Amino acid sequence: MIRNSLTDVFFTKDDVENLHEGVLRVLSEVGVKIENDEALEIFKQHGARVEDGTVYIGEALLNKALETVPANFELQGFDRTVQVGLDHDPVVIPTNGTPLVLNFDGSYSDTNTDDLVNFYKLIDTSDVMQVTSEIAVDVPGLDKTKDSLLAQTALLMKYSHKPIYNILGATIHNYKKGSVAQGVRENIQFAKKYYGYDDKYVIYSGTCVISPLGVGWEAMDHFMGFIKENQPISITACSMTNLTAPGSLYGSVVEDAAAILSIVVLSQLMNPGLPVLYTSLSSMSDMRYVQLCMGAPEFALITLGHIALANFYKIPVRVGGALGDAFKTDYQAGVESFVGLMAPMLSQAAMIPHGCGTMGSFNLTSYEKFIMDEETIRYLMRLRRGFEVSDKRKEKALKDITKVGPRGNFLGGRTPKEYREDNYLASEVFNRKGCKENTREEQGDIRDRAKKVYDARMEAYELPDTTLEQKKLLNTELPEQYKFDL
């Protein structure tokens, strides 16, 4: 756990308790609209007041549910696991759901299946990404005459060694042979069969509550399916100040938290001990343009407010990311990414969504920004680690300073161990060779360097070593051009 979180800088203990008091009042006095009869009945059975589809949750019921939320859990991938939770560093996951791609040549295009595969390879070869996820949901190249839900999941599995995040699960658009609830469960069962585990967390997913204070029927089918199949859920709020949330940041955080916690409570009433992730991607809206602004400083402030509350409730929190409003990989994009990543990276967050590549207020993914964002994450990981202040470090440093004395220098002999431990030597993405005449042309533009990294990663990528049975299973759902040759 990070020793001095940014949340401690922005929020006192009294501030967090004030936020909590607001959440309690909204849950007990205003309530949350839940569009699912089975869920409403479960709330009733456990003593919650339910009127006209609105659930009112008291402090006692909330506290009872919070007691069983696990602080940590493990996600199972093809050949590795990832630890997620309050006692671990943030797990970074990639962008997801963007309909457009910014290509290396500067052109924009609809995200297609080739883009999915390219990004899956980038994610799989990334040293900062620990989980993979669907880059886009409804893409050209998937056969529209059949359900695309399992095809998307099969693609994700084929190209990933890492645990997977299934962004939206089943919808009325990608699953037509039954109800959304059936589609959710079939998709999870497909993942369990592929991995060969029925008792592990092999796929996690999330969807958004409706702001203000509602959970729609489709989202409820999604949540119910994951709860019943015993797989982790991410409960996401994505509100806009002064539009779908109050004008104040306090109001935004409190309203979002109440809606999120309603599903946290339901999950624990139905399946005590099920891992849940408290997720916010809410931000301010610029009323001059009626536009959600994901690169604004208020996004980071709202994120920090939710981290403080989730830590107070002892729920793993999934927030922030390299988000922004820019639609070119320029200075604006870099600043926005850093601001969005800094809040969770320098706090106690369990997971960071949209870790690399997202632009244009959720509408755009960039290949080159993906690679640049990875380097930003490495910088922030280094900041998060701090530096060692110990008697051992003190004595060694003072000994060296005494030996060299005034006007001397420390260059000589082998590079000391403490130098190697304390300093991050940046990758070739960022230029640290100085603006010297003989390096300016050699280094080129950061976009050129990003393209070189991309090409090397594509060349180095190797498919997971799946069994014949796994290949056969994936082939039942993979788009024709991506099937295994058997």
Automatic annotation (TrEMBL):
Under InterPro entries, the record lists:
MttB-like_sf (IPR038601), MTTB_MeTrfase (IPR010426)
Q: How far does the signal peptide extend, from start to end residue? A: none
Note the superkingdom of the native organism. Bacteria
Q: Which organism is it from?
A: Eubacterium callanderi
Q: What family classification does the UniProt entry report for this protein?
A: Belongs to the trimethylamine methyltransferase family.
Whether ATP-binding counts among this entry's keywords is no
The answer, when asked if Transferase is one of the entry's keywords, is: yes
The molecular function terms in GO held by this entry are: methyltransferase activity
Q: Which Pfam families match?
A: MTTB
Q: Which key words are in the record?
A: Methyltransferase, Transferase
| UniProt name for this protein | Trimethylamine---corrinoid protein Co-methyltransferase
Q: Which GO terms describe its biological process?
A: methanogenesis; methylation
